[in-house]
Amino acid sequence: MEENSREDNDIVIEGMMGYERKDSGMSVDEYGAMIKEPLLVKNRINTTSQIAIVGANVCPIESLDYEIIENELFKQDWRSRKKSEIFHYVVLKWTLALLIGLGTGLVGFFNNMAVENLAGFKLLLTNNLMLKDKYFQGFAAYAGCNLVLAIAAAALCAYIAPAAAGSGIPEVKAYLNGVDAHSILAPSTLFVKIFGSIFGVAAGFVVGKEGPMVHTGACIANLLGQGGSRKYHLTWRWLRYFKNDRDRRDLITCGAAAGVAAAFRAPVGGVLFALEEAASWWRSALLWRTFFTTAVVAVVLRGLIEFCRGGNCGLFGEGGLIMFDVNSAKTTYSTADLLAVIFLGVIGGILGSLYNYFVDKVLRAYSIVNERGPAFKVLLVITISLLTSCCSYGLPWLSKCIPCPAYLEERCPTIGRSGNYKNFQCPPNHYNDLASLFLNTNDDAIRNLLSSGNSKEFHLYTLLVFFVAIYFLGIITYGIAVPSGLFIPVILAGSSYGRLVGMLLGSLSDLDVGLFALLGAASFLGGTMRMTVSLCVILLELTNDLLMLPLVMLVLLISKTVADSFNHGVYDQIVKMKGLPYMEAHAEPYMRHLVASDVVSGPLITFSGVEKVGNIYHALKITRHNGFPVIDEPPFSEAPELCGLVLRSHLLVLLKAKRFTKQRVMTGSDTVRMFKAHDFAKAGSGKGVKFEDLDINEGEMEMFVDLHPITNTSPYTVVETMSLAKAAVLFREVGLRHLCVVPKTTGRPPIVGILTRHDFMPEHILGLYPHIKPHK
Amino acid sequence: MEENSREDNDIVIEGMMGYERKDSGMSVDEYGAMIKEPLLVKNRINTTSQIAIVGANVCPIESLDYEIIENELFKQDWRSRKKSEIFHYVVLKWTLALLIGLGTGLVGFFNNMAVENLAGFKLLLTNNLMLKDKYFQGFAAYAGCNLVLAIAAAALCAYIAPAAAGSGIPEVKAYLNGVDAHSILAPSTLFVKIFGSIFGVAAGFVVGKEGPMVHTGACIANLLGQGGSRKYHLTWRWLRYFKNDRDRRDLITCGAAAGVAAAFRAPVGGVLFALEEAASWWRSALLWRTFFTTAVVAVVLRGLIEFCRGGNCGLFGEGGLIMFDVNSAKTTYSTADLLAVIFLGVIGGILGSLYNYFVDKVLRAYSIVNERGPAFKVLLVITISLLTSCCSYGLPWLSKCIPCPAYLEERCPTIGRSGNYKNFQCPPNHYNDLASLFLNTNDDAIRNLLSSGNSKEFHLYTLLVFFVAIYFLGIITYGIAVPSGLFIPVILAGSSYGRLVGMLLGSLSDLDVGLFALLGAASFLGGTMRMTVSLCVILLELTNDLLMLPLVMLVLLISKTVADSFNHGVYDQIVKMKGLPYMEAHAEPYMRHLVASDVVSGPLITFSGVEKVGNIYHALKITRHNGFPVIDEPPFSEAPELCGLVLRSHLLVLLKAKRFTKQRVMTGSDTVRMFKAHDFAKAGSGKGVKFEDLDINEGEMEMFVDLHPITNTSPYTVVETMSLAKAAVLFREVGLRHLCVVPKTTGRPPIVGILTRHDFMPEHILGLYPHIKPHK
Predict the structure, then answer these.
(1) Are B652 and B689 in contact (CB under 8 A)?
(2) Contact criterion met (CB below 8 Å) for B726 and A716
(3) B113-130: buried (b, 16+ CB within 10 Å) or exposed (e) per residue?
(4) Mean pLDDT of the B255-284 span
(5) How close does chain A come to B238, measured CA to CA in Å?
(6) Which residue blocks in A458-509 are alpha helix, DSSP H?
(7) What DSSP character marks residue A208?
C-alpha cells in the first residue's frame, strides 16, 4: 500500500484528511491502515478518467508553492535583510532576464540556422537528383534523409527525455498555473527539445519550431533560475534568492515570452502571448521585465542575422526566421470584401475546432501506442515520417506543369533550395506548383502561399490537395515522440485554405489572394488556439503591415467565437488530456451550491506544536501530503488552536538536522539560531532532502522536535461554510497550494481539513456529487 | 457629530470597530457618543495629510463591491436562473461592448472634427490678418478666440462638472481599483468632458485630447452599463443584470481601452493601455471583449474618415486623428547610433521625472486657488490662456526667417491652416520655423517635428525655445479647470527635445532627425507615464513602422528605469495627491511585521441574526459603515457565531419595505418570497434608497427584522494573527471591500473587526505605528 500510494501523484492524495487521529488515539500505523479504503476510492475517481490516459508510467505531478511561507525563520531573515541584499536581488532579477533573452535568442537563431542547413542540404540533394531525371533515387534520398532525421529526433525523445515530445506550451501553461509535471523543465528536456526540434523540423514533418521554442525558453529560464544544474555540476551559489517557486514562475514567464519572440521575431507578440495564453498570474512589474527580455531577444536576432548576411551561416539567409511580406496597400474595403472575410472567418473557425477535435482523438489513440515503450514510439515516428515523405514527394506528381509566367523578378524555375517555382518533373521553363509547396521548408511554403500579386501562381486544385494533405498530416503528426509545434501546421493549413477561398471568391472581392491567405491563417489560428490580441500582434510583426489590422482582428474575433461554441482551445484540451490539474480563472457555476466542507474529506493528519519525531517520521512515510496543520495544545496554549501549516520539505530538512529534545519543550529560539531561511529554500524539482535520506534511530523516534520555527503562521483560511466558488476564487487568485478550512462553531478541533488544487477539480467534485449537473 | 461624520468619506470611518456594544449593553445612542473620540483621531490622521489637499468641498469617496454577495436571495436567484437568461446576459455583454465601441468611436471622431474646425477657423483668421500685415489685430484675434474658447471650457468645468477637469485617467484608474470618486462617471461629467476637451484643445492650450478620451470612454461605458441615466429619464430595464460593480468594472475597462483606441486610432494599443495602466484586475475573457470594443472603434473611425475624404467635414481631413509618417528605412545601427539613443533615453528619463515633480508641485499650488470657488477657477484658466497666447504668438518673433528650400513637394510658405512652413511675419518665399510649431494645432506641430528628410528644417535655437516653452507651459497648464490630457504635451516636449538632440549629435549618428524626434517622444512618455508595452504599441500604431521597434523599446526601457529611481509615474502621483485610497498590487515590506489585528480598531457595530429595527436604524444613522457583521446568538445557534455580513444598501432596502415582526422570530423564507435578488441590485452612484428615505415610526422601532436572507454567508475572513501583508494580498487580489477578522482563540466573540481598503493605506498604518520605517 505504501509503495502504491507513493506511485500516485501527490495531488490525488493531498485531498484526504480528517481529524480522527488525535481523538481516537490510534497509532500512526493503525491510522495508515485505516486510510486505505478512502484512498482507493479517491484514486478510482481520478485515475480512471483522467490520469490513466497519459500512460502506465505516470509521472508524478507536483503543485508549486507560490505562497510566501511566513514562519519565524522567514521573519528573522526578513528583519535582518540589508539594503544591499535587496539591491543585489533586483540587479540579479534583471541580469537573469537579460541572460534568458540572450540564451533564448541564441538558441532560436541556432535552431533556425541548423534547420535551414539540414533541410537545405536535403532539398538540394533531392533537387539535383531530380534534375538528372533520377526520380526514384530522388525519392530515396528525400525519404532517407527524412527518416534518419526523424529517427534521431524520436530516439532523443523516447530514450532521453520523454517530456520533450509535443509542443510544450500546454506544460508551460500548467507550470505557470502551479502544476509541475515531472522533469518538464529539466536540463535533459532542454537538450532534447532543442535538437529534437531541429531534427524533427528538418525531417519534413508538418510541425513547427514555435511551440518548442516556448518550451525551450522556459527551460532556459528554469535552468538559470535554479542556479544551474547540480547534476551537471553547474551551480551558482549567489542565485539562492531565486530558490522559490514564486521567482521561478516569473523567470519562466519571461522565458516563454522570449521563446515566442525568438520563434517569430515578434517581441511585442511574445509579451502578449505570455500574458494571454501562458501566464495565470500577472503583475505590471512582470510585464516590464518580460518586455525587456523579448527586446534582448530581438536585438540578438537582429545582430546575428546581420552577421549572416555576409554568407557566414551556410544555407541560412535564404529562408529562416520567418518575416513575410504581405501587400495590402488597399485601405478601403467594399461590403463584398467584408462578407468574404466574414465567410472566411466562420468556416475557418469551424475547421479550426474540428482540428482540435481530431488532434484530441489522435492523441488518445497514440498514447496507447506510446505507452508500450520507447521502441514503439520510434516505430510510430518512422511510420508517420514515411507517410509524410510519400505525400510530399508523391502528391506533386498529380499536379500539371505550369509554364513560367513572363516578366518575373524571380528566376523560374527556381534554382537552389527555396523559392516559389520548383521545377520538379516538369520540362524547362515550367514549374510544378504543388512541389513548390511540398518540397520546401514549412517557412518557405508559407511564404509562397502568402505571396501577393500573381493570383494564378497556384491552381485551385493544387491548393485543395495541399490543404487537405496538410490538414490531416498536421493532425496525425502531433502526438508522435518528436518536439512538435502547432503554430506552423495551423498557419500552413490556414493559409492554403485562405488562398483557396480567395481564388474561389476572386470575382466577388478584389482583395489580394495573398491577403486572403493571411486571413485564412488568422482564422485557423483563432479557431484552434483561441488567442486574440497576441495572435493579432504576432501576425502584424510577422507581416510588418499595420494596415491590415482591422481585417485580421475581424477574422480572429469571428473564428474564435465560432470555434468556442464547439470545444476548447487546443492547449487547454491537451492540458486536460494530460491530467494536469489546471485551475481555471473562474469558478464553475455548480460550485456556488457547495460549501468548502462538502469537498474536504478525512482523515486529516495534524501535528502538535512540539511533536514526537516518530509521529512525524511515520506521517511522512505513509502519506505524500505536502502540508500538515500544526495545532498548539495545552500546555502551550489554553485550548487547541491552529498554529499554522508546515511543509513536507521543511519537515524533512528539520528531521535531517536531528535537533531533537528528550522532553516536550519549545526550543524555537535555538532552532532559529541554528538555521538560516535559505536552508529551507526550495530546491529544484527532484533535488532537496528526500524521505529516503532520513536516518533516524529507535531512540530518536521517541524524542521531540519543536515545529514552531518552521510553521507558516499565516496560512490562508476559509470557514467551512464558505461557498466553494468563493474558496476557489481565493485559491486561484492568491495562488495557493494549501487552503485551511476552519470550523464555524466553537468547541470543535481548530481545523476541519485542507483544500488543495485537486479538491477543486471538476472530476473530484462531480465524483463526490454525481447528481450535480456540471453546467448549472 | 452626526452631521460631521456624514461629511467625511465613508472609507475613513469604515475603519472603526470593536465588539463592546453587546457586552456592555449600551444603547446605540450611548454607543454613538462613545465612538466619537477614536473617530476624530482617525480623521486627523487621514484628512490632514491626504484629503485636505483636494480642497474644502471634499467629495465623498465610495469603495466598490466586487465581491459576489452570496446571500439567500442570491442563491435563490442563482438556482432559478434559466438558460435563456444566461444567454441574454452574454448577448447583452457583447452588445454593450459593441455600443461602447460605437459610442466612443463616434465621440472620438466628433471631438477631432470639432477641434480641427474650431482651431482651423481660428488659425485661418489669424493667418489672413497676418498676411495683410495686421499683426496686432492678428494677435487680438488669436488671443481673443483662445480666450473665448478657454472661458467656455472653464465655465463648463467649474460650474457644471468639476470632476471633468484634468486628465481623468487617474480617476478611471482608481475606479478600476475599486474607488469611486464622486460623480466621476456621471452623465454631466461626460457632457462636460466632451465639450470642455474640444474647447480646451481648440483654445490652443498645451493639452491633449487623449486622457479626456479615456475618461469619455469610461463615462460612456458607465452610462450604458447603468441602463442610462434615471435623472434624464433614459433607462433600459433589461440592463438590470449589469447593476453591480463587478460587471460595471468590466464595461469601464472596455470603455477606457476604447478611449485610447479612439484617441490614437490604436486598437491594440488601447487594449494594452487598459491592461497595463488602467485595470487592476484582469481576466482573459476581458482581454477578448476589450479587443472587440477597440476593433469596433477602429472600424467606426475608418468609416467616418472615409466619409470625410469627400470634404464633408469642413476643415477636418487636413490634420486630425494623428497618424504620423516616420521614415526609418535604415535597419542597421552603428554603435554610435545606439550610444546616442541611450543618451537620449537617460536624459529623457530625467526630464520626464522632473516633469512629474513639477506637475505635482503646480497641482498642489493650483488646488489652493481652485478651492476658493468656481470664479477663481475660471480666473486661473484666463491667466494661463493669456500666457499661452502670448508665448505662441510672441516667441516666433524671436526666430529668423528661413528661405524656403528648393525642390519641395509641399508648398512653401504654407497656404492655409496646417503645414510645415508658416509664413508669419516673413517675406514671401521665407518661413518662420517657430511659427510652424506654435501657430498650429498640437497634432500638426508633432507631425512637423517628426517629419524626416530635411534636417535643416528647424533651427537648433528654434527647437530649444520651443522645447523650453512647451515643457513649462505643459506643466502649468495641467491642473487648471479644463479637461486636459498629458499625452500630447509630453509628446510635444519630447519630440522637440529628441529632434534637438538629433541635430546636436547629427555628426556622430546617422539616424534621421525625425526618428530622433520620435525616440525623444518615447523617452519622455516613458519618463512620465512609466508604461512600456502599451506605449510601444501606441507609438507603433501612430507611426505605422515596425522597423523602429527595437529602438523604441530600448528608449522606453531606459527612460522608465532612470525615472523610476526618482519618483512615481504621473498618474500614480495624481491618484495619491487626490487622496484616492489606491490598493497597490504588492504589499509594502513593513506590512510583514504587522498582523491583521494590529490595524483593526474598535468599536465594532454588529447585528444579531434577527435584530431590533431601532438598533439598525440608529446604527445606520450614526455611522456610514457599509458593512455590518451579523452574529447568530442563542436561541438561533448554540454559541455566538459569525453568520456573515450585511451591506448598508441592502439594509436600507429591507427597512424601506417594513416587513417587521413583533417577536424575535426568523421570517427568512417569507422575505425570500417577497423580494427578488435584483431588488437589492446596486443602483448607480447617488441613486438607490437613501437613509433619508426611511420613515420608521416609534412602534416599528421596537419591532424585529430577520437579516438572514440578506446576509452574505460567505464573507472572506482572516485570522487576527494573519500577517497584514498576506491579508493585503488577499484583499487586493480577490477585490474586496470588507475583510472580516476573526479571533484565533476560542471563547471570544466571533469577530474581531473588519478590514477595509483604508486600513491598508500607508498613511493609516504609519499613523498608528510612527516608529515603522516605511521602506524596511
Answers:
(1) yes
(2) yes
(3) bbbbbbbbebbebbbebb
(4) 89
(5) 22
(6) 460-477, 487-504
(7) B
**Lowest-pLDDT choice from A22-31, A59-68, A197-206, A319-328:** A22-31
Sign of CA dihedral B418, B424, B429, B432: negative
Reading the block at residue A177, the C-alpha cell is 498555473
Residue B28 lies in a domain: no
Residue A649 shares a structural domain with residue A512: no
- Residue A442 C-alpha cell reads as 514549412
Of B529, B547, B578, which residue is a domain's last? B578
Are the CB atoms for B122 and B145 separated by under 8 Å?
yes
Q: Is the residue at B505 inside a domain?
A: yes
pLDDT band at B352 (very low <50, low <70, confident <90, very high): very high
A703 shares contact with chain B (CB less than 8 Å):
no
Residue A185, min C-alpha distance to chain B (Å) = 25
Domain ranges, residue B604: 589-768
| DSSP annotation of A710 | G
CATH code (residue A649) = 3.10.580.10
CA angle A33/A37/A40 to nearest 5° reads: 115
Give the integer Cα–Cα distance in Å for B377 and B359: 17
Q: How many domains does chain A have?
A: 3
Torsion over CA of A503, A507, A508 and A513, rounded to 10 degrees?
A: 30
**A744 contacts in B (CB within 8 Å)?**
641-642
Q: Both B407 and B297 in a single domain?
A: no
- Chain A residues closer than 8 Å to B725 by CB: 68, 70
**A491 pLDDT more than 80:** yes
- Chain B: residue nearest A546 by CA? B544
To the nearest whole angstrom, how far is the Cα of A714 from the nearest Cα of chain B?
5
A224 shares a domain with A368: no
pLDDT per position as a tens digit, B578-635: 889 999 888 888 888 899 999 987 668 899 989 999 999 999 988 888 899 999 888 8
Say if the Cβ atoms of A546 and B550 lie within 8 Å.
no
Say if residue A286 is in the same domain as residue A190: yes
What pLDDT is attached to residue B661? 86
Residues in chain A closer than 8 A to B533 (CB atoms): 268, 271-272, 287-288, 291
* Best mutation target, A323, A719, A740, to test chain B (most B CBs within 10 A): A719
Clarify whether residues A117 and A239 are in a common domain: yes
Say which range, A30-44, A702-716, B154-168, B247-261, has the weakest mean pLDDT.
Answer: A30-44
Record: contact B641-A745, CB cut-off 8 A = yes
Tell me: cis bond preceding A635? Omega within 30 of 0 counts. yes
Q: Mean pLDDT across the stretch A60-79?
A: 83
SS3 helix, strand, coil % of chain B, rounded to 5? 60, 10, 30
ipTM value? 0.86
Dist CA B344 CA B554 (whole Å): 10
pTM equals 0.87
CA distance B80 to chain A (A): 10
Residues A612, A568: one domain? no
Domain termination residue (choose one: B522, B556, B578): B578
Mean pLDDT lowest among A85-89, A356-360, A418-422, A590-594:
A418-422
Pick from B35, B45, B157: nearest CA to B581: B45
Domain holding A484: CATH number? 1.10.3080.10
Model pLDDT, residue B600 = 85
Which triple of cell numbers denotes residue A569? 482551445
Q: Are residues B567 and B660 in the same domain?
A: no
Q: How many CB atoms lie within 10 A of CB A775?
A: 9
* C-alpha cell of residue A204: 519534413
Pick among A714, A720, A730, A744 to test the B interface (most B CBs inside 10 A): A714
For residue B592, give the nearest of A70, A295, A553 by CB distance. Answer: A70
Q: Are residues B541 and B669 in the same domain?
A: no
Q: Find the Cα–Cα–Cα–Cα dihedral B144, B145, B148, B154, rounded to 10°.
A: -110
